[in-house]
Specification:
Blueprint (H helix, E strand, L loop, with lengths): L2 H93 L3 H31 L8 E3 L1 H10 L2 H7 L2 E4 L8 E3 L1 H17 L6 E9 L10 E8 L40 H11 L3 E6 L10 E8 L6
Parallel strand pairs: 2-4
Antiparallel strand pairs: 1-3, 4-5, 5-7, 6-7
The chain binds adenosine-5'-diphosphate and magnesium ion.
């Protein structure tokens, strides 16, 4: 061999080596590409399945909401009949001075009233879930609304020996809101305050004006605070209690009744309060040092409502 031949051979050998390694690289890349394609297909299939599951869940959620709303409507009609007739019978028993029948009929009317309240709560919850709450906005004075709700608890407060204090709200300006919604917000908070406060305790309702820089909604607002001297709430539950059907404590231990100590309820009150307050562009939260049925640290519920609603 000559020097030139050797050089040629060396070059050929080098090139063959490069070609070989290129071929291996291409093979590797092709395999990688195939792996990718398979993974991508699997992902697409999984995505499709997820989407289907999601649609099914959405359908289920709608069916559940429809079910609650339809049954609630359907239950309301016969219930109205029962309480209407019981009312008539009670008047009759009163005329005839039949004490025993009066007592039974009052019990029946109490029961139907409670059922009515539960059905209303279910309907409220369903319309909050469906985002179909209708608000009739008007400038409202808080004082008469608070007093009206408080009045409906006069008997319960006396029975449970709980003092209710309502602060002077004369200086509080009007709030643009729906009177029925405000009534419900105060009613749910007040009934809870009474329910979770032992006999002999104290509940107060206060209101104050907040300038924009002090308001969590950054607008001129009115803050309503419902405070009690009750059993309090564990800090880890302060947010959870606003979710629907959430109740602390052992459900089976609850006595029933809207104002009985620790009386049971459907666990919708605070979820409705939050839904309504949010629909009014406000904020609601709870504060308590903790839950203790011996020392009774008490709880505080704050509702902040902007004085004006945005133009719609
Ligand atoms: N003022 C309060 N003091 C202590 N616990 C409270 C108070 N208000 C609400 N809670 C707790 O929050 C839970 C949820 O309240 P709510 O949604 O009104 O349902 P319900 O009154 O039907 O139990 C209650 O079961 C109770 O454990
Ligand atoms: Mg309640």
């Amino acid at each position: 061999y000559q020097e030139g031949d050797l050089n040629l051979l060396r070059t050929l050998a080098d090139q063959t080596a490069v070609a070989l390694s290129n071929a291996r690289l291409v093979e590797g890349l092709t395999r990688l590409n195939n792996d990718f394609r398979r993974a991508y297909n699997a992902m697409q299939k999984a995505n499709l399945q997820l989407e289907k599951a999601n649609q099914q869940l959405e359908r289920l959620d709608r069916t559940k909401s429809d079910f609650i709303s339809v049954t609630s409507h359907e239950l309301r009609t016969p219930l109205t009949l029962i309480s209407g007739y019981a009312q008539l019978l009670l008047e009759d028993a009163q005329k005839q001075n039949n004490e025993f029948h009066q007592q039974l009929l009052k019990g029946m009317i109490d029961g139907t009233n409670r059922m009515h309240a539960i059905i209303s709560s279910m309907l409220d919850m369903a319309s909050i879930d469906a985002q179909s709450i209708k608000l009739r906005l008007e400038p409202l004075m808080l004082s008469p609304l608070v007093r009206m709700v408080a009045k409906s608890y006069t008997e319960a407060l006396k029975e449970r020996d709980i003092t209710l204090e309502i602060s002077d709200m004369q200086g509080i300006p009007t709030v643009e809101a729906d009177p029925e919604a405000i009534e419900k917000i105060i009613d749910h908070l007040l009934s809870n305050a009474i329910k979770y406060t032992p006999d002999g305790g104290k509940v107060s309702i206060t209101a104050r004006l907040l300038p924009p820089e002090k308001s969590p909604v950054r607008e001129e607002s009115v803050e309503i605070v419902v405070q009690d001297t009750g059993i309090g709430i564990d800090p880890k539950n302060l947010d959870l209690i606003f979710t629907k059907f959430y109740q602390t404590g052992e459900i089976s231990l609850h006595s029933s009744g809207k104002t009985k100590f620790k009386g049971g309820g459907p666990g919708l009150g605070l979820a409705i309060v939050r839904g309504l307050v949010q629909a009014l562009n406000g904020k609601v939260w709870a504060y308590s040092e903790g839950h203790d049925e011996e020392t009774c640290p008490g709880s505080r519920f704050h509702v902040v409502l902007p004085r004006k609603q945005p133009q719609r």
